[in-house]
Amino acid sequence: MKNFIAVTLMLLAGASAFAQQALGPGTGIVSPQINPDHTVTFRYENRKAVTVQITGDFLPAKTLEFQNEGRTVRLDVPGTVDMTEQNGVWSYTSAPLEGELYSYSFIVDGKKVTDPSNIYMNRDIATWTNIFTLSAEQGDKGWYYEVHDVPHGNVSKVWYDSPTLGLKRRMTVYTPAEYESNPKAKYPVLYLLHGSGGDEDAWSDLGRTIQIMDNLIAEGKAEPMIVVMPNGVYFNQAAPGAAVNMFQPTMANSRSQSTVEIEQSFPDIIKYIESHYRVRKGMADRAVAGLSMGGRQSSALSRAYPKMFGYVGMFSGVVPPQGEFDQQLADVFAAKPKLYWIGCGKTDGVMQNSLLLKDYCQQKGYPVTFYESEGGHIWRNWRVYMTIFAQQLFK
Amino acid sequence: MKNFIAVTLMLLAGASAFAQQALGPGTGIVSPQINPDHTVTFRYENRKAVTVQITGDFLPAKTLEFQNEGRTVRLDVPGTVDMTEQNGVWSYTSAPLEGELYSYSFIVDGKKVTDPSNIYMNRDIATWTNIFTLSAEQGDKGWYYEVHDVPHGNVSKVWYDSPTLGLKRRMTVYTPAEYESNPKAKYPVLYLLHGSGGDEDAWSDLGRTIQIMDNLIAEGKAEPMIVVMPNGVYFNQAAPGAAVNMFQPTMANSRSQSTVEIEQSFPDIIKYIESHYRVRKGMADRAVAGLSMGGRQSSALSRAYPKMFGYVGMFSGVVPPQGEFDQQLADVFAAKPKLYWIGCGKTDGVMQNSLLLKDYCQQKGYPVTFYESEGGHIWRNWRVYMTIFAQQLFK
Question: To probe the interface with B, which of A85, A172, A251 has the most B CB atoms within 10 Å?
């Protein structure tokens, strides 16, 4: 026991000079454990807890209905099951799972906690959950979200000047692996926009964009491209941790209903990218896409600059036909975009508007691609949409 | 209550389209709250817990003694105090604190959990803890670790080829803010090495290197420089999350006792940096420093390449005089390094070897700078050493 305490303390303190023996993980417990049959076993040590449950998006979802501003809203939330205890260790083994990125938490006597045996976590707005990926076979969804032994692109957090907004602002830039080895080649650019509550880290962290692009490019399924992930909240400079003050993000403080400021300031982003990176310029080599708020922004940007983007992607976020839409969309399609792509989940509240836009385009004879998935307004869908959309760009 | 559930669920699901009202943080609780007198209040809601404690490095440390391989080891660990409960919310207010980056966790009925109201966390090897920074006045330690409204440098995660190790490997590169605005200027380079259990993310995340450099350069206290933070474990390609497989890091799987491979392969790193960045080449414009294992590597690199680095920093990590040391150190000092810097904490187990090296250098008449701090083998000291060391480079 004394030795166990010593080892634990050394791990906590990072007291490397003292640790000579091979050390196990900090908790001495393996969780999650992905089994050969693709079931997953979770373990959590707690001798005093009365009940321990696990909640995760691999469990059958519960659909909750509630009223919000006079509308009935249905929302899928991860299911919850009891874990069983033996010698102070609570455990649960899932059903066999398909390849995917999964998230989960434990619920100890009613309070959510993270799994101390699993260092992998994602933050979505103000909530941290543990994650793991599982690939049942090469090329399934989970496989694209994992790091494989393929050439890796670089990822930079860069600060650019936005004179329009009067701010220096931060964004994430992915350059494909071959950008380094082909020093004269020029590349097309996908501008990829996050949703409310998100920031310039969202698509790389929650969205697995780096892994998706590395893997798609390595397989020859996507063209080598630069992916630019800016901060879509016009009054913020940067994500928590890179911004002045340690603010706690909420939907409220990371939200901008208006798309006007993003429309007006977006040329500042394009100017920085096209002057700092080797890029092909022109409509055929620019794409814009986003999720939720970022989908509405992509719609607005394509209408504000109809000759700017040859590819437009709206993931669970559209602006329904309204107001000056007739002329604006006529201008968009007069410029002959190569792809005008709408993706939405069947139970997503955005589905109604997505269908309105699709029907409007079809009535007008505008070529539109509509992708309907299962599920709702969740990252699992946005990763899938990104994986599909990226394969159709710049070909 | 129904509305509260709805709001909570929407936050969890990122269901931005539905949330119209201003939303508070996910838990509805403010923690930590930094008060005007620099005390800090922590809050945690749990109606079923019997005891809730807080453990943090702002509490008086406990010194533990234990035996390890026949030696008596003393280790400072964060103190623990009870929190008090009112209406289901446990709270604790600290004494007034000096400017610093602090870490803490809650202990609920004996089990450590993170603070669900605070999104800011650091991972040290396999342990996540909450963090916060506090600056009592401009220019105190905490101030340097915070993001301020100063020009910000860019941070890149780049992959380089190490033919010596037969691996593509990842490293973190900081370029100062003016690197972008002075497109012809060339910059000196600090190579900054992490300790056992660490990786190429350690100095930027735990070490606050980005903030320290931005702030020191903005104040004119440090020269604009590039800081290169490679992965110091020769058999690893990258940090968890960027590496193949979701491995759980331990001291064991992120540890390399031998410095030979790092010595042999380090020219691969320098070659990449000097061919991909605008850098000044030559001993006067290269520094190497590291903590713990990285300090031993810095010692080894300076001895292997005595004319490579004009500045050498060993933070809580030295190689004591032994073996071929006489000739090697004679070569190091024959090349007249501008700075040979040793930093160590009074209660650090490395102090004995640090003093041996200092005394050896002084007996030989080699100019050496020795910095003794309070405390032990902890990140708090390494951030301070980095802040001091960086101000002495390239002047």
Answer: A251
* Stated pTM of the model: 0.92
Domain segments of chain A as ranges = 31-143, 147-390
- Min mean pLDDT across B20-34, B65-79, B314-328 is at B20-34
A:171-190 residues touching chain B, CB 8 A cutoff: 177, 180
Superfamily of domain A31-143 in the CATH hierarchy: Immunoglobulins (2.60.40.10)
What is the ipTM score, two decimals?
0.92
Topology adopted by domain B23-143 = Immunoglobulin-like (2.60.40)
Contact, B273 vs B158, CB < 8 A? no
Residue A12: list chain B partners with CB under 8 A.
77, 124, 127
Q: Does domain A147-390 have CATH number 3.40.50.1110?
A: no
Q: Residues B333-375: pLDDT tens digits? A: 999 999 999 999 999 999 999 999 999 999 999 999 999 999 8
Q: Using a CB-CB distance cutoff of 8 angstroms, which residues of chain B are in contact with residue A255? A: 16, 19
Rounded to a whole number of angstroms, the distance from the CA of B141 to the nearest CA of chain A is 16
Contact yes or no for A16 and B377 at CB 8 A: yes
Contact residues on chain A for B293, CB-CB shorter than 8 A: 16
List the 11-70 stretch of A: residues with Cβ below 8 A of B. Answer: 11-27, 46-49, 64, 66, 68-69
Q: HSE-up of A310 (CA within 13 Å, CB side)?
A: 15
Beta strands in chain A (DSSP E): 33-34, 40-45, 52-56, 62-68, 71-77, 79-82, 84-86, 89-93, 100-108, 111-113, 121-124, 127-134, 154-162, 167-175, 189-193, 226-230, 286-291, 311-315, 339-345, 369-373
